[in-house]
Amino acid sequence: MSRIADLNSDDFAALRQKTLNEYEAFRARGLKIDMTRGKPSPEQLALANGMLTLPGNGDHFSEAGEDARNYGNLQGLAEVRTLFASTLGTSPERIVVGDNSSLALMHDCLLWAWVKGVPGGAEPWQKTEAPAFICPVPGYDRHFSILEEYGIRMLPVPLKGDGPDMDMVEELAADPSVKGMWCVPKYSNPSGETYSDAVIERLAAMKTGAPDFRLFWDNAYAVHHLTETEHQIPDILDLCEKAGNPDRAFVFASTSKVTLAGAGLAFFASSPANVRWYLASASKRTIGPDKLNQLRHVRFLKNEDGIRRHMAAHRTLIAPKFDTVSNALEKRLTGTGVAEWSKPQGGYFICVDAMEGTAKHVVELAKQAGVTLTPAGSTSPYGKDPHDRTLRLAPTFPSLQEVELASQGIALCILLAALEKLHSTRNG
Ligand code: PMP
Asked: This protein's superkingdom (predicted)?
């Protein structure tokens, strides 16, 4: 396919008509496919069915002899923290095991910082005049929603393929009202990119105007590889410590997309001072986490190799879905000059940059044809994409056959929206 912007008016009109016809035919199929959220499919959840009967009747003691049925052990069972230490890239004593949602832990940390402040801070964040967070874009909508909920300003910074634009980040972080930054350092949601070592080193070492600045380091996709290459990132806690900023990073992760999305384990990891701070706050909220679920995870996954094998089984199920989307986009859009898309090596999303000013239209066209996409704009703060071009595709939940149909339709919608936009420009 040649670049659409270069077509003469006859060829352009012919392509537009052909694409419209194809779209109508696609719409007439009356599909109903949901590609909105990064959810595991039923087949992926079934990989963890063995957990449903664990830890088993009578098996409720930890290695240290704690009764997992009872209250207590706010930090989480030692064997669980050991099991996930390498996933989190740090040592067991720096890890806290929460209940089933890392997003809840992020929310709690933000709220505690807001109400009470964090180690190294002179006052609660709410006392700061117009506090702000740096938000790499495209980003995760639920991160942005937490900030919006508490009226924290969002400062968008573009991602560049190997992490955020660090010159911009350093400039923004120098302002004392900038209290933190969201980071999804590996297989980012939704761009799929992994931060380079150089970017991570700069984040750990940069000067911040606020002494109590925090990186909210959401390593949600730490072990979620889509290829045989298991990309690794440096230990942010170690780098922060070496750079003289030991308390800078709050690390989060969970097994939502390892075992069960609704019944996994969530983790917080940080410096000793931050872990003490976290546990002191958490102790006012709960008498202890669900340790039976913790035991269940240890019994099921067993060791690091068990996690690796389990993730390989996920990969077998989902990598073909990512390939299918990629093939459909390539087939319809390569060379047209109207879209670019990510080829993620891990994580849960494919990110498409459609022609500027068309993303909302693409989502609407897809909806009319029975394919529901994440709303356009959701990857930007306040749900507003100033370029109206970024689309997030989440191919894990539907079946492979549905993903195939949906992605053919999505590619068609991207092309049609671009043609319609160019048509109106060409016709003044
Ligand atoms: N962080 C990121 C970057 C995510 O993509 C998701 C899930 N879509 C979450 C956090 C949610 O994690 P949890 O289920 O542990 O709350």
From this structure: Bacteria
